[in-house]
Write a structure and sequence with these properties.
mainly beta, 7-stranded mixed beta sheet, 6-stranded mixed beta sheet, 7 helices
Length: 623
Amino acid sequence: MKRVLIILCLLVVCAGCVSRTPVGTQTAILPSEVFPTADGSTPINQIQGVTHRSPMEGETIAKVSGVVTAVDGGGFYLQNPVPDEDERTSEAIYIDLQANSNAKIGDFVLIEDGWVREWNPAGLGENSLTITTLVAKKVTVLSHDHPMPEPIILGKEGRVIPNQVIENDVSGYVGQSKLPIDPQEDGMDFFESLEGMLVQINNARAISTRNRYNEVFVVADNGQDAGIFSDEGCLILRENDPNPERILLDDAFILMPAVYVGAIFSQPIVGVVDYNFGNYRVQPLSKPVLSQNEALSPAPAQGTQQEWQLAIATYNLENFNSLLDLERSRQIAEEIVDYLKAPDILVLQEVMDDDGSLDSQVVSAQRNIASLIDDITTVSNGAVVYKALNIDPNRNADGGIDGGNIRTVILYQTKRGLRLASNTAGTADQETALTVENGRAMLSLNPGRIWPGNSAFINSRKPIAAQFVFNGQDIYIIGNHFNSKGEDGPLYGDQQPPQTPSERQRIAQAKAVNGFVRDILDINPQAMIVVLGDLNDFPWSASIQTLEGDLLENLVNNLPENQRFTYLHVGNGQTLDQMLASRSLSGRLVDYQVVHINSLSLPKEASSDHDPVVAVFDLSAIE
């Protein structure tokens, strides 16, 4: 949990004046003679050192002095007002109080017999960097009302933030490395060199909305020298660019206002640099002021324009239960009709069973699905009527919340002649096979599961396959929800480069699905196949490349690079929800679009945490 902090006003006092002005309106480093003498004090920069862990870790320091810059419920931040000339060494440290103290912002204090401690906020042994702190049992206030040290400007008018590399000097555990940090090239080292210090962000621009933890990601200088931005203002994650220029604003000292992607901050943001939950962060010391902050409306999908066109979509509904959240069900129904334009085939992930997260014996989702279909019909005034293809999983065998029994469901409309090729549905443990009928690859179970007994799908969702006929042609739909990335290491974790242990299972899942696609194409090389869903990995990842192989084309590549995102995570717009098509079908693509319903919305306004993807294909008959 985040530390509970006492919100205090940060004051600046001009030398020789009695007036007080907020930090950011007047700042100046004062000469050392302004401060009381603390003979024998060890400079904070020596405690911090030039590595990620203090060279004095575990030692007791006789004397440390500095100015209090921020106070919370457990201690305060102390900064040396007269820095050294080495930008690798932080001039501030968090004082972990082990005794009562009346130190306030602007006080010049002396710490005696403080113990240097490296503290892992995630817990012992967790993949997290440590915070250098000074455990203090005796704090003496020597004088009051001193000006704050001048904040270090992050960006073009101060210290330039690395914009491509997080860490490239260490392969292994950063905390064990004895190498000096490299703040000019490595984003991780850049923020480490400022640990606990006052910093200032000018012309900040939001690249995320305020999330459920009241965090907001921004870039400095209105995004100058930052990576590529979407049209909406999201910073796009790329294979070789994790965007270390992202700055996380947290709410330790403030009440974070509602912020949308693209918001402009009209005043400099001043705060202290902190680390927690696998991320460096800036804790603003006063409420940010915004001059431009508007919710963005998603552009609706194109929809089908001609009778021979077929629209197919995928949408992760995030633990959806229509019966338990009527308002959300209605919202999603409106999105399907108004923004997705009621696609002919809609593949949904994370549809829960009928009693939601209650860990009962219930696994059926029949009433849940029927309720959503009813809402869609109502919203469309009867114009849109879906049928459902669903295979109930074995209880608590497919991952997700225990008791939720999430699964992938296929909805389809029949009004334009779309129909199932056969209607013998499989069960959770049955594997659909392929038979040959007059050169056609026919599913033995429709819908059916692909290789449910494969160890790759243990505690994970099983792919669902269905075969449709439209305009006299077979269309194979394979709906997926691959293994979660939840266990993978954070970008700013102790282990570098970040490890991706969950990828092994996704690669195995991708091999299984790719093998099934190959079996269809072996029967009919011109078969039209769509593999889609929440694939929980990036287009360039080993798992998606394995899934694609030499059989499928990832349709996201039809979008401009700056529009390739379906999900916002730690300030990076990234593509997790994808649609791949066999080559005979990819050439018939008319339109491919991510409908940004949720990634640009505040959590309380969003219906899910993913954006849906819609593709339209030209399925006019081959002559």
